Amino acid sequence: MKNISANLKDIILGGQDGLVNVLGVILGLAAATSDTRIILAGGLAATFAESISMAAVAYTSTIAYVEYYESEKKNEQRSIEENPEEEIQEIRDIYAKRGFKGRLLDQIVKKITSDKEHWVEVMMLEELRLSPADTKGALWSALIVGISAMVGSFVPLTPFFFLSVRSSVITSIAVSGIVLFAAGAYKAKLTVGFWFKSGMQLLVIGLVSAFLGYYIGYLFQ
């Protein structure tokens, strides 16, 4: 449960994106043709392209964040070295706004500024709202997003392996809707919010996006 919670953002990002995009593709193809082979070919192409693309985006975005974090960290380290009094005042202001004052505030400021590494970390988190990350996390995030995107993509695609196009469209929409609603409800259970509202949000966003694909396919029927 703890591991799922920690990776929830990546799982939902990959799974929802894969499901919605592939659902839109196959609904568009199903509206334009009754040839199952064409629908499967398009759906499978979208599945693998989407999974690789999402994994790559997750990796590069995490790397970019790590580089940005390190750049800002160096700036803070430089500021502490060059303008220590100004940075001390910033720490004082941060905790004064939280209601600390007098001797207790002095002790907090003294404790934080006595260790420069800890001082920098506090400034990064409290002033810039940046949390540390590393490149190992980038690889793991890419893996989770890529696998989730592939799993999500097969949710709407699987019926087309076994059923007629018409039956597959109905089954695909129904199953995808259930999965989207369940994912939203589960997200609310692990985080905060009302499960029904969260489930409906994901369901509506996902199906509206997917039906745009159907409409485009219908136009080119």
In short:
With 221 residues, the chain is mainly α. It has helices at residues 2-6, 8-32, 36-82, 84-96, 102-113, 116-126, 135-157, 165-190, 195-219.
Key terms:
mainly alpha, 0% strand, single chain, 221 residues
Describe the structure in your own words.
Helix 2 (8-32) packs antiparallel against helix 3 (36-82). The model has no long low-confidence stretch (mean pLDDT 80). The radius of gyration is 24 Å and the shape is elongated. It is 85% helix and 0% strand. The protein is built from nine helices and no strands. It is mainly alpha-helical. The protein has a domain at 2-56 and 149-219.
Rg measurement, Å: 24 Å
Taking pLDDT < 50 over at least 5 consecutive residues as the criterion, the unreliable ranges are none
Described by strand count, sense and barrel closure, the largest sheet is:
none
- The averaged pLDDT comes out at 80
Helix fraction by DSSP (H/I, runs of at least 4):
over 70%
CA-based shape: elongated
* Helix count, DSSP H or I runs of 4 or more residues: 9
Strand content: under 5%
What's the N-to-C terminus distance?
46 Å
Order of helices and strands: HHHHHHHHH
- State the secondary-structure class: mainly alpha
Quantity of strands, as a count: 0
